[in-house]
Amino acid sequence: SSTSRTMPKDRRGRLPLKPSGSKGREASDVTSFQKAVYDVCRRVPQGLVTTYGAIARALQSSPRAVGQALRHNPFAPVVPCHRVVRSDLDLGGFGGEVGLHSQRVKKKKALLLKEGVRVIGSQVADRRQVLTTLPALV
């Protein structure tokens, strides 16, 4: 839609040298595809979201592959994977769990609300907060 936002092209950053949290993964365990997904995800500003499909198009990949990479994100919260939702604007999964009944998806919703994203039920309510076009990165 014409009200959808595009990602700022000048927002770049490098991944931290060490994963955060206790997911038991080392930075060397992260594939080049995962690094590319995390790099795109890291550029989504607070208060906005993007979709698995938008990241997939930017990387010439598939939304499911993007979802799997984000499921295994060892860099959270530096890589804010909670800012990625389904293309129908449903929150989708978080940490390998799906459905608003899930504690992890409830956490995803809480994080987005705290950042100012309007969420009603399990849906992002304001399309103006969705980055649908990302710069091609391949």
Written description of the protein model:
With 138 residues, the chain is of the alpha/beta class. The protein has 4 helices and 6 strands. The strands form 2 sheets. Strands 1-6-2-3 form a 4-stranded parallel β-sheet. The chain has a two-stranded antiparallel ribbon with strand order 4-5. It is globular, with a radius of gyration of 14 Å. The chain starts with a strand and ends in a 5-residue tail after the last strand.
Task: Give a summary of the structure in a few sentences.
With 138 residues, this protein is of the alpha/beta class. The protein contains four helices and six strands; from the N terminus they run βαβααβαβββ.
Per-chain topology:
Layout: E1 5-6, H1 32-42, E2 49-51, H2 52-59, H3 63-71, E3 84-85, H4 103-114, E4 119-120, E5 123-124, E6 130-133
Parallel strand pairs: 1-6, 2-3, 2-6
Antiparallel strand pairs: 4-5
Main pleated sheet = 4 strands, parallel
Can you give the helix content as a percent range? 25-40%
Query: Strands of the biggest beta sheet: in what spatial order?
Result: 1-6-2-3
What would you report as the Rg, rounded to the nearest angstrom? 14 Å
Order of helices and strands: EHEHHEHEEE
Could you say which overall geometry the principal axes of the C-alpha atoms support? Answer: globular
Mean pLDDT: 83
Discrete helix count: 4
Q: Which residue ranges are poorly predicted, with pLDDT under 50 across at least 5 consecutive positions? A: 1-13
